[in-house]
ABC transporter substrate-binding protein
Amino acid sequence: MKSSIYLQSAMVLASATFALPALAQEKHPITIVVGFAAGGTTDTVARILSEPLSKELGETVIVMNRSGAGGRIAAEYVKNAKPDGKTYLIGPDGWAIFPTAMHSPATLRYDLMKDLRTVAQVVSYPLALVVSNQVPATNLKDYAAWLQENPQKAQFGTPAPGGQVQFVGWVAGKTLGTKIEPVTYRGTSPMIVDLLGEQLPAAILPTGAILDQSRDKIKILGVMAEQRWELAPDVPTFIEQGYNLEVGEAWQGFFAPADTPTAEVNKMEAALQKVLARNDIKESIRSKAMLSPKFVPADEMEKMLNRDIEYWGKVIKDSGYQP
C-alpha cells in the first residue's frame, strides 16, 4: 500500500517537473507590437492575424499597442526587444519609409534597416484622390483643368504633417501639371467631415477609408495603383486616365529585431504565408480592415523598402520640405 502511494507521488512530481518548461514557455508568448492606437487599421490587421498565427505556430500570440510619435515608440521598443523570435512589429509603409528618408537614426532613435529586419508584407491598398462637391470634376482631366481655373482652391487634405500623403500629393500635383498645397488635419475623420461639408476641395487618403461614404458627396477621381482595386473596381487608376503617376500601392508588413535568428524569421514568414492563403482570413481583411491581403516574402519586401526609401528621399528633397 505504502509503495503504491510513493509511486503515485513520484508520478505526480514527475508530471509537474515535465510541465514546467511548457508553463515557462506560456509566460513568454509571441507579441505583435502595433505602433498605433487600438481600433485603427494596423491594429485590426494584427488582431485578424493573431489567432490563426497562434494555431499555425502552436504558441500564444498576443497584440500589444505601443502608440505614439507616428509609430516610432513601437519601433524603438522592438529594436530593444530580445531577438528570440518572440517579438514582431507590424507597421505601414508610410511609417517605415518617410521618417527614415527624412531623419537621422539619432533623431529617430533607431535605424530601420540596421535595427530591424523584414519578415513579410501582409496587406496592400491604394491611395486615392477624392474631391468634394465644391469641385465639379468627375475625372482627373477635368480636375486638372479646374485647378488651372481656380488656383486659389488647389488644396488637398492630409491627415498629418510631413507624412506619406503630403508627399504623394506633391507628386500627384506635379503629375497633373499644377501645384496643390497640403491642408493638415489630425487624422482622417475630420478631413472626411470637411469634405462632406464642402469646406475642403480635395484629399488624398486610403481608398478603403472612403468607400462607406456617399459617392454623391465625395467623388473618387482615381486610385494610385497599376490596376483597379478589387474593393472599388469601378474607380479608374491614374494611369488609365493618362497620368503616369509614380506611386505604387501602400502596404503593411511585419518586422523583427535585427538579430532575430533566421530560422525564427523563416518560421513566422511561412506561417504568415499559410494564414494569408486562407479564404476566411482574406475575407476578414477585406471586410474588417478594408484592405487587400497580399503576401510578399522578406527578401522582396526588403528590396522594395530600399527602393522606396531612395525614391521618396529624392522626392522630399526636390519638394523643398524641411522637417
Remarks:
- The two ends are 81 Å apart (CA to CA).
- The chain has twelve helices and eleven strands.
